[in-house]
Amino acid sequence: xxxxxxADREAVxxxxxxxxxxxxxxxxxxxxxxxxxxxxxxxxxxxxxxAIVGHILFSHVDxxxxxxxxxxxxLGPMAVHPDHQRRGVGGxxxxxxxxxxxxRRERLVVVLGHADYYxxxxxxxxxxxxxxxxxxxSIDHYFALPLTAYDxxxxxxxxxxPEWGVE
Length: 167
Known about the structure:
3 helices; about 20% helix; about 35% strand; globular; nine-stranded mixed β-sheet; alpha+beta
């Protein structure tokens, strides 16, 4: 496990594309990484003997409540090459990324994902912590993880920037 480096760009693109069966998420990664919402140290890879087999990205998105906008972390995209899935690579990526988020004193992480996967890592249904997904995203697949620095008054609707391809 290590921080992604610029030289990993093609390998990360390949892993994201292979994991999702299309390049859409890989293109999102490229847009986020080159945006002001990218966070140094929160793009991580699993390197298996010189081959990148997993990637996770955390970036800032907005949490909006009334006239107040705050930054929270969005987890994603995350991908594990199909040849390495179901071996704990995704869990390693999540744990490592959350550890960095805690060190940075981030308050909250949100993710759109599988209901049987993210709760294993402590994620709660977003509605349980007063967080709403962006319009058009399924509340049934939207999760939030309050970190140590979280304040229960920290609530609102998540808004992704244009780098995500949703607004």
